Amino acid sequence: MTPISTRLHGKLDYLLGILLILSPWIFNFSQGKAATWIPMILGAVMILYSFCTHYEAGALKIFYMRTHLVFDIVSGIFLAVSPLVFRFYNNVYTPHLWLGIGLVVTALLTSARPYARKNPHGDMTKYAHHIPKQYQS
User: Fold this and answer.
1) Residue range 48-82, pLDDT digits in tens
2) What is the largest CA-CA distance in the chain?
3) How many CB atoms lie within 10 A of CB 124?
4) Predicted TM-score of the model (pTM)
5) DSSP secondary structure string for all residues of 49-111
6) Contact 65, 125 (CB under 8 A)
7) Whole-angstrom distance, CA of residue 116 vs CA of residue 128
8) Are 117 and 127 in contact (CB under 8 A)?
9) Mean per-residue pLDDT over the chain, rounded
């Protein structure tokens, strides 16, 4: 069992997307270079693919949750290593590293089965109509 539900993950996605967009000003590294643009672009992309994910917080339901989690992991790794790749680690690296690690850890601890909640009787029949065919057992 994974400790983070897709419902909670959806809320975290939008909050982290906003945090990434605002991070250059929150953490004081808004010089307009790669260090600034990378988290801003990743935050906007994260909000976009969250909006398009088939889970409680998604509206368009284009991507499956497993695909979304892969996007999160790849984005987190990219964010964490971006100070090295783009050579701005002398100026700033801590927000990129910790937000990237947080994104990866959150993805690894999240259930890949949206709507998979038990009803008070202990079964999932009440929610079965919300579960995509590939996730049904």
Assistant:
1) 999 999 999 999 999 999 999 999 999 999 999 99
2) 56
3) 17
4) 0.82
5) HHHTBSSTT-SS--B-HHHHHHHHHHHHHHHHHHHHHTT-TTT--HHHHHHHHHHHHHHHTB-
6) no
7) 8
8) yes
9) 88
